Amino acid sequence: MQVKLKFLGGAKTVTGSRYLLHIDDYKILIDCGLFQGLKELRLRNWDKFPISPSDINVVILTHAHIDHTGYLPKLVKEGFNGPIYCTFPTMELTKILLKDSGKLQEEEASYAQKKGYSKHEKPQPLYSIEDAEKVFPLLQPIEMEKEERINPSLSFTFFNAGHILGAAILKVKVKGQTQEKKIVFSGDLGRYHDPIMNPPVRIPFADILLLESTYGNRKQLTNKPEEELGLAIRETFRNGGVAVIPAFAVGRTQMILYYLHLLQQKGKIPNIPIYVDSPMAINVTKMYKEFGHYHKLSPVLEEEDCNPFLHKKLHYYQTQESSMSLNAIRGDAIIISASGMASGGRILHHLYNRLPNEQDSIIFVGFQAEGTRGRKILEGEKTVRIYGIDVPVKAKTFYIEGLSAHADQEELMEWAEGFTNKPKMTFLVHGEREAAESLSTRLKEELDWNPIIPEYLESFELFDGI
Ligand SMILES: [Zn+2]
User: Fold this and answer.
1) In angstroms, what is the span from residue 13 Cα to ligand 1's centroid?
2) Rounded to the nearest whole angstrom, what is the distance from the C-alpha of residue 295 to the centroid of ligand 1?
3) Is residue 385 helix, strand or coil?
4) Please, are residues 17 and 429 in contact by the beta-carbon 8 Å criterion?
5) 252 C-alpha vs ligand 1 centroid, how far in Å?
6) Cis omega before residue 339 (within 30°)?
């Protein structure tokens, strides 16, 4: 039996995670992500897929983030028709995120047509909402830590990875004629002291390991995000303003709600109304109750008064009209809306409305990538362009660190130390070059590992004649 691995993405970049395992003629695609960020990466979404999608037998997903699932509608559109295995929460989250992604693709295409910047007369979306929905019947949920057999020589198991609801580490077992081999995909690893998600499970053994390296070169400050958030809210309240928090609907919004509720319960911030202005967030928040045993919060979700996602001062706004109505509020309120880097979505009209007001605040709670509006506002630019207009930045801005859903360098090392034997081959994936190199250096020096940082479309023979 021969086993090969090809990197169809997630190599020297944090997006487009897709790893193809060839086991003789059987083909498994692990994750099926969209490329995001820089234009040269995004253009890869339009390239012909490196192998015919109808030749792939199964897809296995580590978690629902779009950089791990967002290419699925295109894969299905082009002929993939096999099962897509994932955990139960990943299945539900993937449905929500893919529909949203289809909507964004459609909007982008019609915007390109309106502005006339596409070389096509009628620019087509990468995929539509309808294409996204065609993925749903193929999704097959599997319990965590339950070995699932695909065929007599192949099985796989999911283990909790922390990170986001349902996120999993994947172990694939290949049984050859003489030997059995284990291939472990870390997926995205969460943090060891996350207030909501459980820490990633340690895996004692792997022949082959694919380890993420998003924050391979970063040590997160051990600051207290709760206190900093409290300070920012108190200051806005004293100024009589509204605090606007740009946050992604999955994961980050729930973490902010958790901290805000804690601060209100402790009397550290006033009991002012909190508005979650996102059509997605309400569905995602419901899932925390449905999938109580996938996180730490289930006991508090049972009682209305201590439920950080469902209490009297918390309001979910779904419609466009209710969203616009928030612009009339003059003070004493907190608004949470997406997208987290102010690159699109409803947050734009809030910023358009709030940025010119000195008494209001914008509180950033996540990394702001280069080129985004969020980064420009944080770097102190005097104006930012929204809806084609230069909007003056007069509102106060804050940046709260330490709320990331990713393990930092220290935590990646801690997880790697959980292996009792050194894997025969380790590939560092899902990280920019500097991040992967920095983690590689520590793995070499401290654990005597010899990691490989693969290139896009590079192939490796893992086993021959097992
Ligand atoms: Zn992720």
Assistant:
1) 13
2) 16
3) strand
4) yes
5) 12
6) yes
Near ion ligand 1, which residues have CB within 5 Å? 65, 188
Token pair 């051990």: residue:
222
Angle between helices 225-238 and 252-265 (to 10 degrees): 70
Question: Is residue 275 within 8 Å of 326, Cβ to Cβ?
Answer: yes
Q: From CA 57, how far away is CA 42, in angstroms rounded?
A: 26
Distance separating alpha carbons of residues 350 and 373, to the nearest angstrom: 13
Give the separation between CA 422 and CA 4, rounded to whole angstroms.
Answer: 20
Ligand 1 midpoint to CA 189 (Å): 8
Q: What tokens does 153 get? A: 């020589």
SS3 content of the chain, % helix, strand, coil (to 5): 30, 20, 45
Question: How far, in Å, from the CA of 155 to the mean position of ligand 1?
Answer: 24
Q: What is the pLDDT of residues 393-451, one digit of tens each?
A: 999 999 998 888 899 999 999 999 999 999 999 999 999 999 999 999 999 999 999 99
Centre of ligand 1 from the C-alpha of residue 171, in Å? 17
- In the structure encoding, which two tokens stand for residue 419, read together? 């292996």
Looking at residue 396, its amino acid is K
> Is this structure's pTM higher than 0.85?
yes
pLDDT digits (tens, 9 = 90+) for 70-109: 999 999 999 999 999 999 999 999 999 999 999 989 988 8
Distance 64 CA to ligand 1 centre (A): 7
Q: Quote the ligand 1 centre to 187 CA distance (angstroms).
A: 8
Which residues neighbour 135 within 8 Å (Cβ) at sequence distance 6 or greater?
72, 73, 76, 84, 94, 98
- Alpha-carbon distance of 241 to 270, in angstroms, equals 13
| CA 63 to ligand 1 center in whole angstroms | 7
Rounded Cα distance, 340 and 403, in Å: 12
Query: Rounded CA gap, 419 and 426, in Å?
Result: 12
Q: Give the C-alpha separation, 94 to 97, whole Å.
A: 5
Distance 218 CA to ligand 1 centre (A): 17
Helix axes 88-115, 281-290, angle to 10 degrees: 170
If you measure from the C-alpha of residue 65 to the centroid of ligand 1, how many angstroms do you get, rounded to a whole number? Answer: 5
Tell me if 289 sits within 8 A of 166, measured CB to CB. Answer: no
Q: What spacing in Å lies between the alpha carbon of 14 and ligand 1's midpoint?
A: 9
